[in-house]
Amino acid sequence: MRRAIPFLLPAVVFAGGEVREEILVIVNSHLITRRTFQQAVEQENAALYRQFSGKQLDEKLVDAREKTLQGLIDSFVLEDKAVDLGIVIPEEYLRSYVEDIKKQNNFSSDADFERALRASSGVGLPEFLVHQKQEITRQEVLRREVYSKIAIEDQELRAYYEDHKDEYKQPNRFRIRELVIAKGGTPGEREAAAKTLESVRAALKAGKSFEELAQANSTSPSRSTGGDLGWMGKGLLRPAIEQAALALKPNQVSEPIETDKDIYLVQLLASEEDQAKPFAEVKPSILEKLQQPKAQNAIQNYLNGLRIRANIRYMVPKEKLLKG
Question: For residue 265, which of 113, 179, 218, 245 is within the disulfide window of CB 3.0 to 4.6 Å?
Answer without folding.
Answer: 179
